[in-house]
Amino acid sequence: MVVHLGSSGITYVPGDSLGVVPRNFPKTVDELLPHLGLDPATPVELPTGAMALRDVLIQQYILNRVSKKFVKAVLERLPEGDKKQALAAIVGNEETFDDYVFTRDYTDVLIEYPVQFTAAEFLPLANKIAPRLYSIASSPKAHPGEVHLTVAVVKYRTHGREKFGIASGYLAYGQDLNKDEMPVYIQSTKHFHMPPPDAAMIMIGPGTGIAPFRAFLEEREIDGAKGKNWLFFGDQRRATDFLYEAQFGAYFYVCGDAKRMAKDVHQTLITIAQEHGGLSPEAAKEYIEVTFAKTEKRYLKDVY
């Protein structure tokens, strides 16, 4: 994911993080307001002046997960009866209460327990949005004027409704990175710096943890650094989770005796493709001899 810095004047170095202030989907707010019984245009007084309630909720409050204090307020407003007793049992058990709020947003709760609030009553019951930090996955020397992020989008469905992580959903679907302005800032690193150019680096970054190491390697390539680099990366599925595969594809070289050594190495590669790639013997042989060697040209031999 690429964030264009434009004329912001923002600068960074490998190892820094980008602070992103996310926003809610307008759809999330538009679903919630009728259940609260509130007009989207209701003015809310802020230190900077009045703002429409709909905009305040989009920009300033976490709505993808309900707060416990809101659920307790709902409980207080419910009339005596089965619904109140059911919710009281949930709130009264800490473990059950944790599970309840983990999978629900405000709309989920209000669908199940319909009560209404004024804007002044609701806002103190919701939590404010806080910035999210993402390790920067690019070198400014390799990508001037850009910040690259490695984002795993949190997307799930509970209680019949589709939901997203507030920050990852915002970055992936909430705005147009080529047009919309996004509130961001640089969080400078205090300790996560690159070593001297001639020093070796061993980097361990599974999943999105690969992000800063891509920046380190791009920086070293631009600078012509002589230090050796080892990157250990892993994820669940090669087909969908091999992040930056085109940049990190390894090259396999074999030099020496063709009849014994090279032949044994070749068969070992096929066995590895079978055992760790989940391929049939035929598919493993085709991958090593055709895809790896001829199509990708990453299996290179100098044998005699």
Q: Which short descriptors sum up this protein?
A:
304 residues, three-stranded antiparallel β-sheet, alpha+beta, 40% helix, NADPH-cytochrome p450 Reductase, Chain A, domain 3
Here the CATH topology of one domain equals NADPH-cytochrome p450 Reductase, Chain A, domain 3
- What are the segments in which pLDDT stays under 50 over at least 5 consecutive residues? none
The CATH homologous superfamily of one domain is called: NADPH-cytochrome p450 Reductase, Chain A, domain 3
Report the radius of gyration as a whole number of Å: 26 Å
Instruction: Tally the helices.
Output: 13
CATH class of one domain equals Mainly Alpha
In total, the number of strands is 13
What's the architecture of one domain, going by CATH? Up-down Bundle
Strand order of the largest sheet: 5-2-9
Shape: elongated
**What structural class results from the helix and strand content?**
alpha+beta
Major pleated sheet: 3 strands, antiparallel
Distance between the termini: 46 Å
Estimate the strand proportion: 15-25%
Q: Give the fraction of residues assigned to helices.
A: 25-40%
Please explain how this structure is put together.
The structure is a single chain. The chain has 304 residues and is α+β, with helices and mostly antiparallel strands. Among the domains are: 26-125, Up-down Bundle (NADPH-cytochrome p450 Reductase, Chain A, domain 3), CATH 1.20.990; 250-304, no CATH class. The protein has 13 helices and 13 strands. Helix 9 (211-223) links the parallel strand 10 (201-204) and strand 11 (229-232). The radius of gyration is 26 Å and the shape is elongated. It starts with a strand and ends with a strand.
